[in-house]
Amino acid sequence: MPGTTSKLDIHPLHDSFAVEIKGIDLSTPPTDAVFDEIRDALHEYGVVIIRNANFPDDKAQIDFSALFGEVEKSKWRNPHMRSLPHPEIFDISNLDEKDQVVTNSNEKRTTAIRGNALWHADGSFNPRRTYVSLLRAVELPPAAMGGHTEYADARQAYDDLPEETKSKIKNLVAVHSFVHNRKTANPDSPLFKDINVLDQPLARHKLVPVHEPSGRDMLYVTSYAHHIEGMDLEEGKNLIQELQSHAAQMKYVFEHHWENAGDIAIWDNTAVLHRATSGSYEGKFRRDMRRTCVMDSSSEAYGLNNPDAAKDQANSS
Ligand SMILES: [Fe+2]
Question: How far does the centroid of ligand 1 lie from the alpha carbon of residue 100, in Å?
Fold first, then answer.
């Protein structure tokens, strides 16, 4: 049970995963003991919410993230986004390069926003996967205007599958593509319409990788997963869709409602899936969210990809 072995004030947010840790102030770095307990909670519950964590700036967010491992840097900055000074900070805001609220006419931004609204794990399209993501609210729209983040317990979803299904899928490999997500989310967009996914960079990851810190298997059925290796294309797509629908059932989903500037959400992409949700604030109110990502260092990090291929990867989106 949460809190029985921990000194931290841990509160469950869902029956099987996701917790809030209360009373943690990250305006100064945590002690080793406190950080170890945060990481243990993350490994056990997949999602950790800390309200009013209050990182004073981007650098503090990066430094805290680095306690989990190697922080990803974006190698390419979208010219339609703000130029934030640290390459480790991924801009998840609805603000454009002039610091103005993005409107629907900004195709390059809205297609990305729609892509993030599909169930995914950050960076699954890369040869080396993403482990931890940390999202920080810097500026939020008025309450009750949407913009929640949803999480699905992909370990519990796997556990609950019939044994027959488990043995059928256990050793399968999914082939992931960044463009596949964008095409699915934006079927009519001229930006992706004529691109053949199979001509794009592809990454191979197990459909059921083990989450090493807990020893539990997870359903790595992200919306970047395009097909199953060695399986008829349509059959593989259908299987991915079927498993994703299974993992996204309401009973496995926790919806996080952002409350205050200063709140953070930390999730383990090797244990849970997530997606952004839309809201009535879009096109009207500022929503400044900043994310850091940490590379996976587990034995599943590179999937079945050549580690050399990870040197030039584009990193998370
Ligand atoms: Fe994401």
Answer: 22
Residue 122 C-alpha to ligand 1 middle, in angstroms? 5
Structure tokens at 139: 């500026």
Distance of CA 87 to the CA centre of its chain: 18
Strand (E) positions, 184-279?
203-206, 210-211, 216-217, 225-228, 253-256, 264-268, 272-276
Angle at 202 between CA 201 and CA 204, to 5 degrees: 155
Q: How long, in residues, is the chain?
A: 317
Q: What is the pLDDT of residue 3?
A: 44
Q: What are phi and psi of 154, to 5 degrees?
A: -75, -15
The enclosing H or E element of 153 equals strand 149-153
All domains of the chain in start order, with CATH = 9-312 (3.60.130.10)
- DSSP string computed for 36-54: HHHHHHHHHHSEEEETT--
Q: CB-based contacts of 315: which residues, under 8 Å, 6+ apart?
A: 72, 73, 74, 75, 123, 126, 293
Tokens 């001229």, residue?
190
The pLDDT > 90 percentage for the chain reads 84
pLDDT, tens digit, 9 for 90 and up, residues 8-58:
999 999 999 999 999 999 999 999 999 999 999 999 999 999 999 999 999
Predicted local confidence at residue 314, as pLDDT: 63
Distance 202 CA to ligand 1 centre (A): 18
Per the DSSP assignment, residues forming a β-bridge with 101 are 95
Number of Cα atoms under 13 Å in the Cβ half of residue 192: 23
